[in-house]
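Chapter summary example: a protein plus iron/sulfur cluster.
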Amino acid sequence: MDMKRATFKGGAHLRYNKELTSGLPIIKSTPPKEVIFPVSMHLGAPSKPIVAVGEQVKLGQKIAEPGGFVSVPIHSSVSGEVVAIEPRIHPNGQRVLSIVIKNDEQETMDESIRPRENYKDLSGKEILHLIQDAGIVGMGGATFPTHVKLSIPEGKKVEYLILNVAECEAYLTNDDALMQRNAEEIIRGLEIVMHVLGVDKAYIGIEDNKPQAIQTMYESAKHLNIEMYSLKTKYPQGSEKHIIKAIAKREVPSGKLPIDVGCVVFNVATIKAIHDAVICGMPLIERVVTITGCGITEPRRMDVKIGTPIEHLLEQCGGFHDAEKFIIGGPMMGFAHYSSDIPVLKGGSGILLLSAEEADLAPPKDCIRCARCVDACPMGLMPLMLSNTSEKGDFDKAEEYHALDCIECGACAYVCPAKRMLVSNIRVAKKEILVKRKQQAEKKEAEKVKGGNN
Ligand code: SF4
Ligand code: SF4
């Protein structure tokens, strides 16, 4: 097999713990009694409900319209009755307007779902419309609407279409499982994206700890003009900026997007969702989730209907024991929670229940100025200085240290022997800098209007 090797500077070698689920098949979750769809499960404007309480809906039926161009619709993952439209707890910790549907377990399919054999007679614009209409967003966790990413601005050109199958977060194995089970659909999805973007070549980057997936993808992609890269297993290899650096050898400048350096990057589950939408006519209503950690009785990889309460999944894993930390997403970039009464969303790749030993809950100590955080930072930042300036409330200084370039990967905190709260402090600084920028922009706008009125 002809494969190139690639990596990036910095980063961390994690305790991956993928073996808890990596040999397991993907099993189908049992039907949940109720599904919950927050109107905000993507980046951009929230969706607008188009159903009413008491209405019967079908599986795959659209239940909320996009709230703008940077937004997507939501479709029901079950057939049943809308029993509430009310604020419910979102995985982001806030109460968000949500559509709640009682599952009648009949799986009555909406008439709009029809397979399509040939997509090549459709224009790129028509396919983009299908992709938005299917509610597809980045399923690696970013949840950015896919049709927007595929809408290449005037004057920009795609030179590197990259399929990101690094799955560099510890514990998660859902992308690995998807590649082994659905390689053909993924490659067909990639062909659709090549057609939309008008490119004749694509690049696939897979971390070298997934030999079986590498083999399967290679076999399925043989007929295409594809360059495959075996990426060194290192965190955060799957970050867009770092996979671009490793494969295209290009640097995405501060404040710029991948397309500014001729690159677009897609997660493997998103590409599979594009296949399902364009070929099968099926909107995004299901995803693979890794449910794992030493606090879970029986770790699993499952096909899960979007909107399924996490509690329902934990029951199917035999419940939990001695769990000290509950995380949605991966251990590095996920968010800790206290209640499992929240739904699986489009970007929800993992559910972790970690034991005390895995969670490493030791309290922070004084910094010993060892500079390990600096060596680990894949963005070339000084996490220690960013964190210190944030703690002192000196956000102007944090901005000078390029706080906004931090991708919140957590590599610095992971290697820190003093267990400093580096990422949470940097997050505070980023938030404050953005608030200040917004206020300055509003002030400038108000002065402009005032000037115009004189
Ligand atoms: S790794 Fe931790 S202890 Fe070492 S310099 Fe950075 S913040 Fe300080
Ligand atoms: S400073 Fe930000 S980008 Fe650098 S290692 Fe820490 S979290 Fe990652």
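Key point: The chain has a mean pLDDT of 94.
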